[in-house]
Specification:
InterPro entries: Endo/Exo/Phosphatase_dom_1 (IPR051675), RuvA_2-like (IPR010994)
Low-confidence stretches: none
CATH superfamily of one domain: Photosystem II 12 kDa extrinsic protein
Organism: Postechiella marina
Keywords: Membrane, Transmembrane, Transmembrane helix
Order of helices and strands: HHHHHHHEHHHEEHHHE
CATH architecture of one domain: Orthogonal Bundle
Oligomer: single chain
Strand content: under 5%
Shape: elongated
Largest sheet: 2 strands, parallel
Pfam family, one: HHH_3
CATH class of one domain: Mainly Alpha
CATH topology of one domain: DNA polymerase, domain 1
Protein name: Helix-hairpin-helix domain-containing protein
Strand order of the largest sheet: 1-2
Helix content: 40-55%
Number of helices: 13
Mean pLDDT: 86
Radius of gyration: 41 Å
Number of strands: 4
Length: 288
C-alpha cells in the first residue's frame, strides 16, 4: 500500500500546481462578477405592455362586478337595497312609504322618499323601470262640446255598482284600471265611502279621476263606524288609514292643548299630518 502513496518530487509539484489552479478558478468564480453591467431596456415597449396588462386587469375586475338589471324601485327588498348600496334607514323609509299604499313614479321622488345621496342616485337611477303609463302617459283627450254640461247626480251611474265594461267607456280607463277600481271596491265590503277614494288607486291621474266622476259617483256609500276625534285614544286613531303612531300622538297632544277640536279642518295644523290625504282621512273621523 505504501507504494501507492509515495510520490516523486516532480509528482508532488504537479499535484500542488493542480490544487492551486483549482483554488484560483474557484476564487475567480465566486468573487468576480461576469454579468453585464448595463441592461438595455426599451422603455416605450415596456410602457406599452404595462398599459395592456393594466387594461386587462380592469376588464377582468369589471366583468367580476355584480350586474344590475332594470327593476321597479317600488319593489326593492332588503337584500336588493343592500346590494345597490342603500343603508338600512334608506330602505326602511322606502318600505314605510309603500306601506301607506303610495307609489314612487320618478327618480326624483325616490330620492325624496329614501333620502339617498346624489352619487348613489346617479349610479342606480338608469336602471329604474317604471310602468308604461308612468313613463308614457296618454295625452289628455279634449272634452267635446256635448260633455260641457255636467251630468246631475241622478244621471250619473253608481260607482259601487259599475261593471268593468261600463268603466272602460271612460277615456283613459282600460282593462287594467277598471280591474283595479273593482278590486279596490271589493276589497272593502260595501265598496267606496266617497268619490275621493279614487285617489287611492295606483296610476289614476287627477285628469282621469275627473273623467270618471263625470259619469260615475258613489250613490250607495259604505257604512262605517267613525272614530271620535275628541275622545279617541292613540290606539283607536291609528286604525284610521294614513294615521301612524307619530301622527296619532301629535293629534292627542294638539287636542289636549286646544281643549278639543272645533272642526275637522283643524287637523291640518297638527304636526306631520299627511295633508295630501286629508280628504280621505276625514271620512273616517267625527267630532262627536
Amino acid at each position: 500500500m505504501k507504494s501507492h502513496f509515495t510520490f516523486s518530487k516532480e509528482q508532488r509539484n504537479g499535484i500542488f500546481l493542480l490544487v492551486l489552479i483549482i483554488i484560483i478558478l474557484q476564487g475567480v468564480y465566486f468573487f468576480i462578477d461576469f454579468s453585464s453591467e448595463s441592461i438595455i431596456v426599451n422603455k416605450a415597449e415596456l410602457e406599452k405592455y404595462t398599459k395592456e396588462i393594466d387594461s386587462l386587469r380592469l376588464v377582468k375586475l369589471k366583468n367580476n362586478e355584480p350586474k344590475i338589471y332594470p327593476f321597479n324601485p317600488n319593489y326593492i327588498t332588503d337584500f336588493k337595497g343592500e346590494s345597490l348600496g342603500m343603508s338600512n334607514k334608506e330602505i326602511d323609509r322606502l318600505h314605510a312609504f309603500r306601506k301607506q299604499d303610495k307609489w314612487i313614479n320618478s327618480s326624483k321622488q325616490f330620492q325624496e322618499v329614501t333620502q339617498i345621496s346624489d352619487s348613489l342616485l346617479k349610479k342606480i337611477s338608469p336602471f329604474f323601470k317604471f310602468p308604461e303609463w308612468v313613463t308614457h302617459p296618454k295625452p289628455v283627450k279634449p272634452v267635446s262640446n256635448y260633455r260641457n254640461k255636467p251630468k246631475t247626480f241622478s244621471q250619473k251611474q253608481d260607482l259601487n255598482k259599475a261593471t268593468a265594461k261600463q268603466l272602460q267607456k271612460v277615456y283613459g280607463i282600460g282593462e287594467t284600471f277598471s280591474k283595479r277600481i273593482i278590486n279596490y271596491r271589493e276589497k272593502h265590503k260595501g265598496g267606496f265611502i266617497a268619490d275621493v277614494q279614487l285617489q287611492d288607486i295606483y296610476g289614476l291621474t287627477p285628469e282621469t279621476i275627473e273623467y270618471i266622476l263625470k259619469d260615475f259617483t258613489v250613490k250607495t256609500p259604505r257604512k262605517i263606524n267613525k272614530v271620535k276625534l275628541n275622545t279617541a285614544s292613540v290606539d283607536e286613531l291609528v286604525t284610521v288609514k294614513y294615521i301612524d303612531y307619530d301622527v296619532a300622538y301629535y293629534i292627542v297632544e294638539y287636542r289636549q292643548l286646544r281643549e278639543g277640536f272645533k272642526s275637522l279642518d283643524e287637523l291640518i295644523k297638527v304636526k306631520d299630518f299627511p295633508l295630501n290625504k286629508f280628504d280621505i282621512i276625514k271620512l273616517y273621523l267625527s267630532l262627536e
